[in-house]
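Researcher: Please predict.
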Amino acid sequence: MIDELEKKQSEMLSAFPNGNLFPGNRGLTIRDYFATIAMHQIMSHWVPHHGGWKDKIAKNAYEMADAMMLAREKS
């Protein structure tokens, strides 16, 4: 699963490429950018009730980013 995600990530466009500053570093992918936006919104409404909340926020943020990527492909 992680190998698939890494391959998928390497094929994505960068949202903020910074190869000029750090050669070989592609910067954030668009998926990462979408996840960052989703994470911000999730955290603004999240009330942690038990342990593991950080992992849940990260998972939910990338699930939303994946949905946004699919919507982007369809439009």
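Model: Residues 38 and 61 are 5 Å apart (CA to CA).
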